[in-house]
């Protein structure tokens, strides 16, 4: 049992040794960044727009499509459009500038984030809020590997999110290779230029195009990598950067497999804490609190590893739907009490089948049905006016940013090792990126910024981390703070991904930082405003 993890770790470590191209990459990226700064940047041409045509026009929004170079090595060549939306500052007389927003992903559409209410009124009065879809995402020249939905289904329906059997693994890996073949045929030249460094170059152009001498930015999840990269490519152009739900940039850009292994561990830590807090809340507040929630959860998961659970309506809870829904609930505190009800209902269904051979009462089955459907992809939003209505930017960015082995079978090997240390999420995370093994535009030095990460900005970067963030574990936030040249870490004690808008104390610090440029005092541990398991009314 110990040989497989040891082998996988050895392979990952050896892989890390052959990806040490940071110096070459940084020199190339720095040179291109300097060229970008020297070029003339045209202003954005805004047009009034209504973010929700089904409602009266608030007359405070403008939209634009801003052209940027497809390839920054040839800035006068082909252009692509970046879709932008602006909510004008509520008090123009006191306007400071623009606050650019990115929700993460990669592949998250930030366009409608101009409408967000997660910031204090002092922020929205003093800043234009600017949301944008990064290159290849949603409205911004979406990267598409298929031409029709039927073509996509023929490939993607052969994959299993958490494959266990040899047949599931082989089918998934074969489909991944067909997927990357489709990307090579259909995605076009944009495929070569999807990395974060190009998103950052686009962002710097947009900053200049709206007339800001320095960048004010809030990035969430993967958006924290955009912020950290900007701080190091353009340290003299930073006004204020808030990064919430942080990646570890050094690890992510140097070793994709090890980053993903640690990410699986973060999900596992969040799950364990969730179950502990459920037990402490008691059955009146958390439906799954009876007995030993950890043992009961593990029993459900292990049962699903062998076969699905069929519900009275004929739907099936599979290991894949179960795992994706649990992960989805850990992302947002408000989903965690409902998850407990679904877990309890599924437990009752399984218990009924085991003891009497009959299905549980309809109420329990109905609540368990939430675990029978795949969770929607987080932060994805694509316009519904094209034959293939999603985009492939998630892998388009990750496969260019994160170095991975070129042998797809490696992912099956590490899956067996990782699930020993992360039994719920190890295999789930291991099969997140096998397509990167055969991606037509893999990670390469000229399209990546891989350090240094310690260039100093005039004002400290505000780093926010939750103690039990599932997707970007707290250790990543600590590493981000240490790796940056000047940064302050603020911690919120909660099981959730990202924290702004969940704690009035935190939001006050964010407001003071953005508006007044007052950095928070280091070492603060804050509480969320609400409990994951509120007392029923």
Automatic annotation (TrEMBL):
Domain Peptidase S33 tripeptidyl aminopeptidase-like C-terminal stretches: 423-523
Keyword Lipid metabolism recorded: no
Keyword Signal (UniProt): yes
Keyword list, A-Z: Hydrolase, Signal
Signal peptide: 1-27
Residues annotated as domain AB hydrolase-1: 99-250
Molecular function as annotated in GO: hydrolase activity
PANTHER family to which the protein is assigned, alphabetical: 2-SUCCINYL-6-HYDROXY-2,4-CYCLOHEXADIENE-1-CARBOXYLATE SYNTHASE, AB HYDROLASE-1 DOMAIN-CONTAINING PROTEIN-RELATED
Family that this chain belongs to: Belongs to the peptidase S33 family.
Identification of the protein by name: Alpha/beta hydrolase
Organism expressing this protein natively: Kitasatospora cystarginea
């Amino acid at each position: 049992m110990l040989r497989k993890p040891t082998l996988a770790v050895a392979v990952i470590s050896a892989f890390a040794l052959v990806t040490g191209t940071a110096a070459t990459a940084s020199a190339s990226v720095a040179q291109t960044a300097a060229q970008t700064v020297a070029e003339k940047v045209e202003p954005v041409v805004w047009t009034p727009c209504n973010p929700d045509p089904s409602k009266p026009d608030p007359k405070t929004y403008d939209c634009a499509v801003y052209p940027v170079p497809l390839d920054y090595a040839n800035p006068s060549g082909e252009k692509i459009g970046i879709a932008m939306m602006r909510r004008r500052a509520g008090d123009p007389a006191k306007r400071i500038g623009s606050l650019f927003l990115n929700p993460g992903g990669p592949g998250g559409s930030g366009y409608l984030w101009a409408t967000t209410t997660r910031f204090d009124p002092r922020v929205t009065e003093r800043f234009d809020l600017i949301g944008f879809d990064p290159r290849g995402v949603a409205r911004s020249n979406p990267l598409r590997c298929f031409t029709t939905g039927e073509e996509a289904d023929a490939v993607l329906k052969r994959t299993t999110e958490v494959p266990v059997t040899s047949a599931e693994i082989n089918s998934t890996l074969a489909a991944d290779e067909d997927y990357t073949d489709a990307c090579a045929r259909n995605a076009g030249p944009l495929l070569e230029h999807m990395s974060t460094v190009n998103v950052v170059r686009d962002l710097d152009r947009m900053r200049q195009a709206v007339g800001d001498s320095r960048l004010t930015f809030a990035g969430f999840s993967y958006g924290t990598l955009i912020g950290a990269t900007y701080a190091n490519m353009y340290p003299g152009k930073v006004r204020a950067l808030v990064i919430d739900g942080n990646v570890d940039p050094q690890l992510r850009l140097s070793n994709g497999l090890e980053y993903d292994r640690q990410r699986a561990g973060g999900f596992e830590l969040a799950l364990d804490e969730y179950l502990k807090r459920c037990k402490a809340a008691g059955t009146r507040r958390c439906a799954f609190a009876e007995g030993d929630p950890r043992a009961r959860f593990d029993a459900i998961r292990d049962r699903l590893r062998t076969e699905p659970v069929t519900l009275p309506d004929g739907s099936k809870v599979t290991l894949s739907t179960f795992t994706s829904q649990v992960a989805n609930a850990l992302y947002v505190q408000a989903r965690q009490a409902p998850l407990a009800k679904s877990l309890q209902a599924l437990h009752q269904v399984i218990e009924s089948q085991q003891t009497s051979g009959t299905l549980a009462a309809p109420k329990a089955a109905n609540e368990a049905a939430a675990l029978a459907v795949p969770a929607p992809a987080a932060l994805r939003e694509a316009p519904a006016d094209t034959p293939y209505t999603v985009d492939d930017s998630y892998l388009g960015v990750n496969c260019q940013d994160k170095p991975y082995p070129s042998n797809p079978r490696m992912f099956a090997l590490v899956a067996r090792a990782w699930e020993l240390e992360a039994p719920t999420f190890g295999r789930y995370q291991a099969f997140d990126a096998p397509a990167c093994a055969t991606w037509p535009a893999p990670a390469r030095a000229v399209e990546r910024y891989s350090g240094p990460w310690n260039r100093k900005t005039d004002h400290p970067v505000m780093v926010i981390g939750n103690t039990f963030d599932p997707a970007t574990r707290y250790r990543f936030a600590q590493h981000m703070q240490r790796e940056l040249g000047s940064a302050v870490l603020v911690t919120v004690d909660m099981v959730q991904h990202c924290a702004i808008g969940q704690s009035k104390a935190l939001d006050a610090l964010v407001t003071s930082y953005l508006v007044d440029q007052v950095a928070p005092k280091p070492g603060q541990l804050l509480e969320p405003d609400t409990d994951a398991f509120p007392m029923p009314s």
